[in-house]
Amino acid sequence: QVQLVESGGGLVQAGGSLNLSCAASGRTFSSDVMGWFRQAPGKGRNLVATITSDGNTGYSDSVKGRFTISRDNAKRTVYLQMNSLKPEDTAVYYCAARRVGAGAPFSSWGQGTQVTVSA
Fold first, then answer.
1. Which string of DSSP letters, residue by residue, matches 19-60?
2. Which of 53, 71, 83, 118 has the most CB atoms less than 10 A away?
3. Which of 35, 33, 14, 17 is nearest to 110 (CA)?
4. CB pairs under 8 A, 24+ apart, for 43-49?
5. Helix (H) or strand (E) holding 70
6. Helix, strand, or coil here: 79?
7. pLDDT band for position 80 (50/70/90)?
8. pLDDT tens digits for 27-74?
9. β-strand 91-98 against 77-82: which pairing, if any?
């Protein structure tokens, strides 16, 4: 298992920006696929963005063009730069890791960081 700790959440006005960080420890994670998920009150946990070990990224339609996922394997950290934030982005944001391989589940999770966007 890799241990993950998120930080950087907070309260921001609509149109503002936040940069979330996810620090990894434990086993080597440089080959893992990393992801950011979010869960709004009363809703399920949804995938926001992913990044492979070689930097290929993917985004949900709701954040494409506004959010950017990146990773620094030397610092063992994954980032989520969030711009042009909207009230509907309000959620607890989770970092997760999965092994490379078809069908491998996200098996390591952080505790989450709260993002609140006011109108």
1. EEEEEEEES--TTSEEEEEEE-TTS-EEEEEEE-TT--EEE-
2. 71
3. 35
4. 43/91, 45/94, 48/80, 48/93, 49/80
5. strand 67-72
6. strand
7. very high
8. 777 889 999 999 999 999 999 999 999 999 999 999 999 999 999 999
9. unpaired
